[in-house]
Amino acid sequence: YPSEFLMQKITEDNQIPVHLHVSVSLQYVAGLKGSALVEFFHGNVAEVENEELRHLMWSSVLFYKTPNVEVMACVLLSTKAIYFLLDDSFIHADEHQSDFWNKENSDCENSSFHLSRCFVLKLNDLQSVNVGLFDQYFRITGHSADHIVTCLTRDSYNTHTFIQQLMAVLSLLARTPSPEPVDKDFYSEFGSKNTGKMENYELIHSSRVKFIYPNEEEIGDLAFLVAEKMDGLTNLQSLNILLYVLAFQVNHVEGSAQNTSSLQPKTLILTSSDLFLFDEDYISYPLPEFAKEPPKRDKYQLADGRRIRDLDRVLMGYQTYPQALTFVFDDVQNQDLMQNLTLDHFGE
Q1: Residue 228, exposed/middle/buried by CB under 10 A (0-12, 13-18, 19+)?
Q2: What span, in angstroms and rounded, lies between the C-alpha atoms of 107 and 88?
Q3: DSSP letter string over 149-216?
Q4: Looking at residue 330, what is its pLDDT?
Q5: If you average pLDDT over residues 170-184, what whole number do you get?
Q6: Can you tell me the distance from the alpha carbon of 321 to that of 19, in angstroms, rounded to the nearest whole number?
Q7: Are 161 and 259 in a shared domain?
Q8: Same domain? 206 vs 252
């Protein structure tokens, strides 16, 4: 340990997405290669001497206790735990959560070294993993509200790779075997007698961690919600959701020193007749078992919606992936909706 292949893979994965800005401490981590990266992990991050680093991924993350603050993190998966090296901006963005993140080291701010917060979720505390629609994100759930994190990969490949690596590492855990399951037929396994509704597809790993995948009904529920937002102008049978993707809406900040743009996370849904932007709650649903009350906001909140027939032109940037798209609408009837709608599927 570690093998040449693993060293090469971790080095290749150690790249911050170009559209996101991170603090100096995380830029330092992103500059490490090969053995230097493994040494950094063992010297600064790892909690146990004999654990092995197996996977590295850069992703935006959300915490259950701070659902409105999306922060960039370097996610490190080892044979013992999942480590989230967090961007410094998170600490300053949510000061009222000081009980969640103790601040005893804040006197280091003026010194010459850079301090990063590291959130640790031990694999033994892991209970379930919820994979989002079309593998755009996944939620890791531990035993309390402090141990629920959503990784917004916005990329099905990154999600798939991480889940595979996590399953492989969980297979190494020595847990007491669960009792032999009683043979069930299909309907008693997936159906609920109380509601008559199909449950989400569950895969229970040998480590007793549940991997929960969305079923077709989630798309049906989403289509119904979208039809509701269209004020019943279309019948549900003819409504097809063609695309669901987690993107960013670009808001240009005028008057600043540089011509900067802020990225607002949005869920883009394309149907055969409309284009929608939703603010989606990625962390609260499905409700964790210990939740006493439903979340304060709905899972989907409509931010903007336009008819495809009002689409005048689509401008595409010529930079490499990630790609920026600008949708220009000729929306004469609704003058109040004529703000600049710039959609960015990960671009600057």
Answers
A1: exposed
A2: 14
A3: EEEE---HHHHHHHHHHHHHHHTT---PPPPPPPP--HHHHHB-TTT--BPPEEEE-TTS-EEEE--H
A4: 87
A5: 67
A6: 10
A7: no
A8: no
Burial class (CB in 10 A: 0-12, 13-18, 19+), 86: buried
Q: What is the mean pLDDT of residues 170-175?
A: 81
Q: Which amino acid is at 338?
A: M
Longest dimension (CA), the chain: 66
Q: Which domain CATH number covers 152? A: 2.30.29.30
Give the number of residues written for the chain. Answer: 348
Q: How far is CA 142 from CA 83, 121, 206, 271, 312, in A?
A: 14, 8, 17, 36, 47
Tally of domains within the chain: 2
Residue 287 sits in a domain whose CATH number is 2.30.29
**pLDDT the model gives residue 197:** 44
Indicate the pairing of strand 210-213 with strand 128-131.
parallel
Could you give the C-alpha distances from 155 to 18, 23, 191, 212, 306, in angstroms and in order? 14, 23, 30, 18, 25
Residue at 139 is within a domain: yes
Asked if 137 and 261 sit in the same domain, the reply is: no
Domain boundary among 212, 241, 269: 212
Residue 127 has pLDDT above 70, yes or no: yes
Say whether both 61 and 159 belong to one domain: yes
82 with 121: CB under 8 angstroms?
yes
Pair 57, 126 in one domain? yes
Report the alpha-carbon distance of residue 84 to residue 117 in Å, rounded: 8
pLDDT in tens, 35-46: 999 999 999 999
- Over 50: is that where the pLDDT of 194 sits? no
Per-residue pLDDT of 213-228, as tens digits, reads 998 888 888 888 888 8
Tell me which amino acid residue 231 is. D
Structural domain of 146 = 4-95+113-174+199-212
Structure confidence at residue 339 as a pLDDT band (50, 70, 90): very low
pLDDT (0 to 100) of residue 297? 87
Is 334 within the bounds of a domain? no
